[in-house]
């Protein structure tokens, strides 16, 4: 099996991979002072990288090539930038992992060795991406075989098989397991070799739930279909760009990040350009930059009045310039919260102009003040600035970015938010450039939707904390929807969320708020819904709002049945089975008791949850056949979230996994 995989990969003759098999000493860098030598080596499976300290007896570490998302060459992380004077860029590279695992910064002994690893790793990632479903399955089985073959003799005895079943979440009667083992042991040696183990695995994974459904396809063919794009619950028709991208910006939900520079909490966490790279790589189209006066005349970015670490504004702008359009060609909005004095505002303007160049939108598209917002299509490849400014666009659309940065007030001030949420108001004062330009509170303060409808301009953006937005949507939901059909609204987390937790974005989407800013670094329901909504339309970060939210007709999410064209939908889901669920409880011998919860997130009438029963001690191939039914009143706004949990009768269930998608993107 391993041999056929290698033939398929066609990589045995590759010089870079051959030298990786031999191994290399490289420095692992964690900070300017932590630089330690490690021996790195590619394993014979061409899938695992093994590394250990040069000191004898130290434990080793491994990671799989499948865990890697990208390889960045040169000084492309804060850590490597901090040692740029010591190690040249051509010896440095960064391994970026999927999910929330930290990056690995490495320095090779020579530029040739660095190149060898960079090219070799990219080749392995590319091969993995080109693998078919069958090869992926073979690879997966091979990985389990290696984990269980404790003495590395290429065979598995019955004890190793028993341990493997526990690792794989199978609680199986010992006699039954022994019967399967003996049947698979064709050579009658008391051990299983490659092909015998595959046979054992096939018997173990016999799928009666699938056999019950088979009419026209072979068993293997149907399994391959289930694992393919065509067999996915997400309709492949909606994966590419399928929406009209020529509507004004306010007609789209826009994937948006809050305090993008933070990697952890809001009080003591690390600030990093990595936050911008990760958010933009996930299709985020609105990122936030909090600017403060820094040393040596250089503006810095951090969460003001806290102990979060500081990074340079120019490094943030460079990262945005480099990564803005890798995942999507549609516009990126830089939401600038400006606390800088006039001198460093000028430096900010210089950096923006110099680093972003033509990508930076410096004037309206036709040089006139617009009557409506331009479209994502109009603004392809452009970076927009969103910040507070004195006077209207009409007075100043000819000004360059430098002048448009003057006289700014911070867009949000979390201390002020907290005070406001405590029913205590204090004026927020900021220095401005010219004495004649006094920034009156009225210019920047939102009063109500009626006032806004008469006085505000299409290019003005209202910013609300989550609690203020909730107050508006409770008191005037239909007016909020109408306001958002003409203008952009940004919602951001309460200042009390010091742990970087997220609010539920759905209630903000229900009234058409476009820029719903979330803490991208925090996994959980909020980001699951965000990832689910923006999975459609080529994950480009823009999703067209339903027609009834873009037009002047009245829509109130509290009374969806009153809208024109109201048509509820009945969603029926039969949860049949699950395969190879991961272990979540680290207790020895513990096996998952899985249940599936289906959640509907949408307008208040649609919010619902239903669960299957839990299956005792079977994370390997649990079968439910439970049917769940929901009536959905506004299908255009509904999100469906599937959650798998490990049932626990004495404490909170453990989270196993989830998948979220818009109801309209589901296929039968």
From TrEMBL:
Gene3D superfamilies from the UniProt entry: C2 domain, EF-hand, Phosphatidylinositol (PI) phosphodiesterase, Pleckstrin-homology domain (PH domain)/Phosphotyrosine-binding domain (PTB)
GO molecular function: calcium ion binding; phosphatidylinositol-4,5-bisphosphate phospholipase C activity
EC number(s) from the headed UniProt entry: 3.1.4.11
Annotated region described as Disordered, given as residue ranges: 400-433
UniProt cross-references to Pfam families, sorted A to Z: C2, EF-hand_10, EF-hand_like, PH, PI-PLC-X, PI-PLC-Y
PH domain ranges (all copies): 18-126
Sequence intervals crossing the membrane: none
Domain (C2): residue spans on this chain: 556-668
Bias (Acidic residues): 409-420
Subcellular location: Cytoplasm; Endoplasmic reticulum; Membrane; Nucleus
Domain PI-PLC Y-box, chain residue ranges per copy: 444-550
Swiss-Prot/TrEMBL catalytic activity: a 1,2-diacyl-sn-glycero-3-phospho-(1D-myo-inositol-4,5-bisphosphate) + H2O = 1D-myo-inositol 1,4,5-trisphosphate + a 1,2-diacyl-sn-glycerol + H(+); a 1,2-diacyl-sn-glycero-3-phospho-(1D-myo-inositol) + H2O = 1D-myo-inositol 1-phosphate + a 1,2-diacyl-sn-glycerol + H(+)
Bilayer topology: Peripheral membrane protein
A Gene Ontology BP annotation from the UniProt entry: lipid catabolic process
Protein name: Phosphoinositide phospholipase C
Organism: Dissostichus mawsoni (Antarctic cod)
Phylogenetic classification of the source organism: Eukaryota, Metazoa, Chordata, Craniata, Vertebrata
